[in-house]
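Today's session is about reading a structure prediction critically. Students often jump straight to the picture, but the first step is always the sequence itself: look for stretches that repeat, for charged clusters, for runs of hydrophobic residues. Only then move on to the predicted structure, which in these notes is written as discrete structure tokens rather than atom positions. Here is the chain we will use throughout the hour.
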Amino acid sequence: MFSTIVVGTDGSETARSAVALALQIARENGGTLHLVAGVPSPSAVTVPAGGVHVVDPSGGGQRSHAAQRMLEEMAREIDGVEVKVYTAVGDAAEVVVRRADEIGADLIVVGSKGMRGTRRILGSVPNRVAHKAGCHVLIAKTT
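Below is the predicted structure for this chain, in token form.
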């Protein structure tokens, strides 16, 4: 039923629980698992007194490379399932949904972190994914 599964992860323990659930679903369905990480946009800071606007010249490059290495390391630990990794600079929820759309995913799995309290109101990743996704979304109970 689910042959193309996208799972969003930032490498945290709660996100690893979502990855484990996505992996189980991929194994049960003979599917491909896509590990996806969104890297925050380059820093832009405005200094109130001088009105100076400073942009991170790295363009998020170092963070993107670190995220790519983290996903590749996670992928090496997985046996018996085809795993692909993808990172992009941008909002985590938008990166996950965009990637799922690009590859025609059947299912997106994300952890439940941020679904309670103030973060839920301000817009958690799982909440935004659930509202924007063009496929099934499973929010794994990770907190």
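Discussion point for the tutorial: The two ends are 27 Å apart (CA to CA).
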